[in-house]
Amino acid sequence: PTKINREIFKEKEQLNHPKDENEDHHLSICNGCNSEIEDGLSINALGAIWHCQCLCCLHCHKPIAMDEISNSERKYHRLCYKEHCRPNCYVCRKKIPSSKKGIKYHKHPFWEDKYCPSHDDDGTAQCCSCERLQACGTEYIMLADNRRLCLECKESAVMDSYECKSLHFEIREFFKGLKMKVEKVFPLILVRKQALNKAEEEKTNGVVTRGICLSEEKMVTRVSRGRNKQLVGMAKEESQRVVREPKVIAILILYGLPRLLTGYILAHEMMHAYLRLKGRNLNTILEEGICQVLGHMWLESHRCSTNNAASSASSSSRITPSATMSKIGDQSGFEKSLVEFCINQIETDESPVYGYGFRK
């Protein structure tokens, strides 16, 4: 058949053959060769129409019959796809199993590593930082509080409070550059997971606590008599925060996390401290959302190369401290990916407090 342009053909067809309610006249174009298909010589598959000889397997390059099409959305014989085109599992390195319903695998939403669904429940270790599962042949280290850490995250992990001093200074300079100077000086302490157990019990919808801003405040339950102020039968209880004095005792953060992740958590908790010291009592969703925004902004300052960040800083109203700038050029390829991972986690968080609060 003579090859013709699909769009031109459609226009000519409409002009030369006006639609008639009593006439079912329709010419089709092959999705493979872009040529006209004669009646009775086509295959309707994968959302398109093909010449029989044009629907060919991407593996063996031979024509595919209707009963040989795989359940995937690609052009493969069922057997070719099963034997040769199944993806390898990121964890066990084997072909992901197939079934009558097709090939089912799980995939990390950011790293996009495909793996067998069974590895979610078979005890396969997961990095507490980047969330990647431990692949066969790789080594994950065990931290003292039973968390696992991959070797790439370990390269920049902050392991004790002394190592955090420069990062603490950097975050303070970052806030100062945003005209939100934190006046009070308080310690930043890296701790094991057990030290955050109490806060972790109060986590919302599976959000694991990785940092706490400790302040001198208590939640008390007060009794109110209602509008009618009757003494009997109208008493009700409601919670109220009591703060003796705007004060922050310390910030606690899990040890053993990469510097960039530790910095993001610290920026989040530093915003809590800033609000405490300013005497701002916000509802939980709004406060956590604002803290996520500050963590997101700090990560964004590490997103670009040194040159790009320096040029943007000169023309931006957001002042990025020099301490931050000096670290950007030293990032490894993995650290740059880790920045994107952390930013993606904040932006795609669907939790009703942190995720909704950030978007709000």
TrEMBL record:
Residues 308-326 have a biased composition (Low complexity). It comes from the Eukaryota. The keyword Metal-binding applies. Residues 28-99 form the LIM zinc-binding domain. This is LIM zinc-binding domain-containing protein. Residues 308-327 are annotated as: Disordered. It comes from Brassica napus (Rape). InterPro entries: DA1-like, DA1-like_dom, Znf_LIM. Gene3D superfamilies: Cysteine Rich Protein. PROSITE patterns: LIM_DOMAIN_1, LIM_DOMAIN_2. Keywords: LIM domain, Metal-binding, Zinc.
